[in-house]
Amino acid sequence: MKGGRRPTGEELAGTSYETRCLWSLRDKIKLHDDLLFIQQGPNYLRRLVVPQSQAQAVMERLHHDLGHPGQNKMYDTVRARYRWPHQQGDVANFCQRCQPCAT
Known about the structure:
Blueprint: H1 9-13, H2 17-24, E1 29-32, E2 35-38, E3 47-49, H3 52-66, H4 71-81, E4 82-83, H5 87-96, H6 99-102
Parallel strand pairs: 3-4
Antiparallel strand pairs: 1-2, 2-3
């Protein structure tokens, strides 16, 4: 992002799924204070790009703050604020492991 150099197709082929997902959204990604954000358009809120390694911590914190909201509300809130690959499945698995939310 900072250097402005675009990777070649060959370079992208050897990268992770997460990297390829981000590359596909490159025109919507902005760097602010060394954090990546995605903004779909001028009428949308920007969403923080979360590394997969931090997704669990984000879900735990948000889940606690929302007070066991259930899977649908949890996913809607995560989707509105954050972006990471496999987000919907991660939220579903997280909520299924939470006894109050799973019922």
